[in-house]
Target: Aminopeptidase
Amino acid sequence: MNKKLLGVLLLLVAPILLVAQQSITPDALTRIKKGYSNSDPYAKAVTNALSANDAKKLTLNRENVGKTDSYFKYKVKVKGITDQKSSGRCWMFTSLNLFRPVVIDKLKVASFEFSENYLYFYDILEKSNLFLENAIITADKPMDDRLVELYFKSPIDDGGVWSSFVNLVKKYGVVPKEVMPETNSSSNTSKVLAAITTKLREDGLALRRMVETKSSIADIRNLKMEQLSQIYRMLALNLGEPPTSFTWRYQSTDNVISPKVTYTPREFAKQMLPNLNLEDYVMFMNDPSRPYYKLYEIENYRNVVEGINWKYLNLPADELKAMALISIKSNEPLYTSCDVGKQLNSEDGLLSLNNYDMESLYGVKFGMDKKDRILSRESGSSHGMALVAVDVDDNGKTVKWQFENSWGATSGQSGYLVFTDDWFTEYVFRLVVNKKYIPENTKKLLEQKPVMLPAWDPMF
Model:
């Protein structure tokens, strides 16, 4: 055979040989079994311990217990802890919690809370509308198209980000919690979400079929409005009907009862937060799997059809910390999201890289950095909280931080979580900062055209 031809054939075959799947043969199993020996006293002891105990308790690093105090040099004024209960509304609670202290100071009241249930109602209604619109727009694509699969896999959910909050407040305003209090369904969202999801999938298929049969745009839109009317009914039955106007009064800490005033939700937002301009806030991300100093946008990631998509500037963690420090020193909390489940000692309310030592227990090395954890889907943002405090050493270097959580006052440290500066680097992903605390050179980066990321991006 011609040597050149043989060389070409070898090059063609080589990749196939490299990717050929390997089964576990008896010989291979013998080699694999060397990783564990029941004659090893340590292995026997750990087997006995793990088979009868919670692995998390066994990996708790006792050397780290009690090493981190809960004192902070800088802390914003906060008052009271909220509770999202069994729902995924952390982003909504966190966003509203940023502005509760403003209202408390303005009205001179002992406590105040916005109605999360009110915004939740419209969040699900708007997400339902967006799904139905997406079903119409993608009706020419097959059901196994990646985008269609994504939409029908999860027509709605109760998750969200800062931009979701912005879209809702600008359109619907806010109301006090007393005006539209929590219900069992708003505090335990799985059942109402499941029912609406089932209905939306049915409705989405019906709209697709109308497009396929060349129905008129008017008929398609009429059907969609009937479908949304049914979703509204389901929401109202579970959550109560949101007010278009309401009459409200309050009692100050001086025991003075205010006059009754009638507001629309948007009027109430303007009255209580007159200096709030939601366009002044910018979302930043620390994602080392992508180039820094680039602006990114997630395609079609929003809750309101006419609203803004999720958009962020990717920066190194140290630059996020610098802006957070300035904001907290200026008495302004920040919307933050993180991978809260990683290295969380819930009993002590502490997030630290040294909390749990799996390597010593299992005798196995765990070595992924933040970039690799993102790429392998091991880590990503799972929870939003308000960043309210920071401690620094004698040189002004940040050493630890504090979250105001929304899991109730009995969780963590009376509702708060302390986390080390190293944990911030590894597991904090997003931060929303007021423009007045953003350096000028960073502001200029916001002028660039965003890199559009697909809706199915693994980080989102």
Q: What stands out?
A: The first strand starts at residue 74 and ends at 75. The chain has two domains: 64-77+276-453, 90-272. The CA atoms of residues 56 and 421 lie 23 Å apart. The chain has a mean pLDDT of 94.
